[in-house]
Amino acid sequence: MKKKLVSMLMVAAMMATMVAGCGDSADGGDDSAAADNTTGDAAPAATETAPADDAAGAEAVTLKWAIWDQETTTYWQALADAYMVANPGVTIEMVDLGSADYMTVLATELSGEGSDFDVVTIKDVPGYATLVQKNAILPLDDYIAADGVDLTQYAGTTDQVTVDGKLYELPFRNDFWVLFYNKDIFDAAGVDYPTNDMTWEEYDALAREVTDTTFGSQVYGAHYHTWRSTIGLMGVLDGQHTILDGDYSFMKEYYDMVLAEEADGVCRSYSDLTTEGLHYSAAFTSGDTAMMNMGSWFISTMINNLASGEYDSSLCGNWGIVKYPHAEGVEAGSTLGTITGLAVTAASDTPDEAWDFVKWVSGTEGAQVMADTGNFPAIMTDEVMSTITGLEGFPTDDNSKAALEVSNLYLEVPYAENVSEINSILDTYHAMIMNGECTVDEGIESMNTEIGAILGQ
Amino acid sequence: MEKITAANVDTYQSELNALIVKIRTEADEKQKKKDLTRIDLLQRKISAFRTGSKVSRSTKRDLVAYSFIAPNFIGFAIFTLIPIVFAFLLAFMTWDGSNPIEWAGLSNFKKLASDTHFIAALKNTIIYCVGTVPLTMIMSLALAIVLNQKVIGRGIFRTLSFFPYVASLVAITSVWKMLFHPSKGPINNILLNVFGVAQDNLPQWFSGGLVMVSMILFSVWKYMGYYMVIYLAGLQGISGELYEAASLDGANTWQKFLYVTWPQLASTTFFVIVMLTINCFKVYDVAIMLAGGGKGELTLNSTVLVYYIYEKAFVEWKLGYSSAIAMVLFALVLIVTIIQFRGQKKYAE
User: For labelling alongside A49, which of A94, A389, A415, A428 has CA 20 to 30 A away?
Assistant: First the structure.
């Protein structure tokens, strides 16, 4: 009997282990953590001597910076190098956490003790909300006031991520959504190019006009990547609605539009796309997609990959961009945006030096470095604009240049306390609507009830 | 422990000698045992005095034994036991991993009852288990029996059926997704062109109601090879004499299976079912790979408990709530396993 009890307990323990084992967190920064031991020891030692030796400034400080995709993203190294040239004595050490689950890994790294990051990159607002609620990053308001940083140059985006009057990040990169189109397809179909001032109805009509459903020579008038932001967020451009509303009926007309396009073969179907895992770049560059709504980050990808020959220029080399379409009665140039910011960790031993780096990267010097690498900095000056439009490979027509002028920028996700939870509910029902697992009305109804319950708490 | 001096060692020695003489003629079993214990104790005390050691030999012996267990147990305690206890406690608390832990009582569990996503995940997980466990067991047993015969190319067939288990999940899910692609996959094209299913009625294998069927079929196919090997080992352990005896009694093939093979495989089957059940309740990777949407999100038709635990814990940082879900999963597996143990016991008797 005793033996049986023991074996029962063993099985119970075994099962518990297996269940508990599922919650293993990914430990992405293993190698770097080991490598960092030496520098981690050196940094506090250096700062201890700093107050005694003010004239020399903070010498030999090492800032550990969390980033993603170091190999394929051009600006990390450029920013770090430029800063280190301007500030000798500061070493920027980058730790690549990978892009797929960057914010999840970062939040895990910053949970509890033992993190030695000084500066972290904020990839999205839900992740930002998590870090703010965990008290893992510092409010920057005192620094901003002391150094007189002008927040108006960020075009209102910082207001949308201010938490209880406090700002925890400064944006250094600001992407906004535009409409990419393939001129060759429009030429072949004898249809006029899209313009910088289109309503969604005009856009829909244009997409249908240029579509060819003939088997073997198919042309899709439009392409929507599988993200929720490509469809559900068309509705927030009027400035009246956000995804924090609790009432999502404003999304209905856009879901209806896209589902009708899907049914008529104007765009690829969502379930095909998720089954294939087709990347939006592959969809656009294969030469059978006339228009695609996508963020401005894709501009530098297009330029670089066409130059390197990775994209076939006979299929997609003749491309252009126009402003995002808009709802009736809304100003042209209203678009969605996402900001990428930098924050100082609460665990940093050298917050002052870390702040200096954050200020530099998100300031005008950092902006110029960003523009030189073909990316959109958070501060858009005329100089920055002309650097980007003057890049070798940027579409030469005037409309494409004018497309970069943004009149109203609405963040895809503004800050809210429960924004992660809201986001995952919206994502679930987006997938269900697009898969045809529920109707648009049912999906929106469920969004309303579930998110209403969260907001009502 | 009393102080041992040279004087009382002598008394111990004489008592010991007397006992040794007495025990030879002792008739009462109980008294004999008592005396033996006393002898053992006295011997230990005397030897402890003679060797001058402060720690008695028996304590030493115990310590040596514990030190052999220690490396394993310390690791087990730090990485398994303490986290399990902590996870259990967390289910009654609210915590985001950074801010102070707050006591939440039963509120996490109360919230579960009205959580649509949790209920969907629970339902899907159970459907998946109910579908996968018996099917995998039957398929692997059938395969094992076939491949235990002397068929031509037995080695090749055994390797082939084991292959899906060895192959990378990511790679084979990609192949499945190509095969079952809603518009371009060969399966749907056969349905369209050969069986004349209308374009609009073609099955969506990875969404809606069919997604669970796809997941179950996929899992059966992927894991049956592994359990086939276990069954093969079990089959080879059955003595040929039993079959011979059955043949002499005039049993046909089916009767041989029913009265020889199946009872002889009972312990193997028990092991297979327990492992299958536990593995099925843990399902996560298959769901994500087959049904994950644009950002890997699962819909109400495809969500499973472990995915929801991950989502709540590491995306939304509701560690208390996710622990509560983990406890539900734990209770579920525990109950099923206890039932299986009971069944096994009854069967064995």
Answer: A94
d(CA A145, CA A165): 13
Q: How far is CA B284 from CA A23, A54, A328, B234, B307, in A?
A: 11, 55, 44, 30, 6
- In the prediction, which pLDDT does A37 show? 38
- With cut-offs at 50, 70 and 90, classify the pLDDT of residue B319: very high
pLDDT of A59 strictly over 50: yes
B282, B312, B316: which to substitute to probe chain A, counting the most A Cβ within 10 Å? B316
pLDDT at A19: 47
Residue whose tokens read 């525990």: B334
Query: Check: CATH 3.40.190.10 for A2-175+337-407?
Result: yes
Q: DSSP for A372-421, please give it.
A: HTT--BSS--HHHHHHHHTSTTS--SHHHHHTT--SEEEESS---TTHHH
A272 contacts B341? CB cut-off 8 A? no
pLDDT for A47 beyond 60: no
Residue contact A428–B298, C-beta within 8 A? yes
The alpha carbon of residue A386 and the mean position of all alpha carbons in its chain are separated, in whole angstroms, by 23
Q: Which of B187, B283, B299, B308 to probe the A interface (max A CBs under 10 A)? A: B299
Give, in order, the Cα–Cα distances in Å from A17 to each of B78, B81, B91, B320: 12, 8, 16, 18
Per-residue pLDDT of A389-415, as tens digits, reads 998 899 999 999 999 988 888 999 889
Q: How far apart are the first and last CA of chain B?
A: 49
Give the pLDDT band (50/70/90) at residue A185: very high
Contact at 8 Å (CB) between B326 and B334? no
Structure token pair of residue A116: 């030695």
Q: Which amino acid is at B288?
A: I
| A161 token code pair | 């991520």
- Identify the sign of the CA torsion A187, A188, A191, A196: negative
Same fold yes or no, A2-175+337-407 and A177-333+413-455: yes
Is the pLDDT at B216 greater than 90, yes or no?
Answer: yes
**Domain locations in chain A?**
2-175+337-407, 177-333+413-455
Decide if A342 contacts A122 (C-beta within 8 A): yes
pLDDT higher than 70, residue A24? no
Q: How far is residue B258's CA from residue A65's CA, in Å, rounded to a whole number?
A: 66
Q: Is the pLDDT reported for residue A32 higher than 50?
A: no
Does position B335 have pLDDT exceeding 90, yes or no? Answer: yes
Are residues A437 and B301 in contact, defined by beta-carbon separation less than 8 angstroms? yes
* CATH code reported for the domain at A177-333+413-455: 3.40.190.10
The pLDDT confidence band at residue A44, using thresholds 50, 70 and 90, is very low
Question: How are beta strands B102-103 and B93-94 bridged, if at all?
Answer: antiparallel
Give A413's contacts in chain B (Cβ within 8 Å): none
Confidence of residue A186 (pLDDT cuts 50, 70, 90): very high
Q: How far apart are CA B189 and CA B196, in angstroms?
A: 9
B-chain residues within 8 Å CB-CB of A420?
Answer: 315-317
Ramachandran bin of B101, using left for φ above 0, alpha for ψ from -120 to 50, beta for the remaining angles = beta
* pLDDT tens digit sequence for B17-30: 888 888 888 778 88
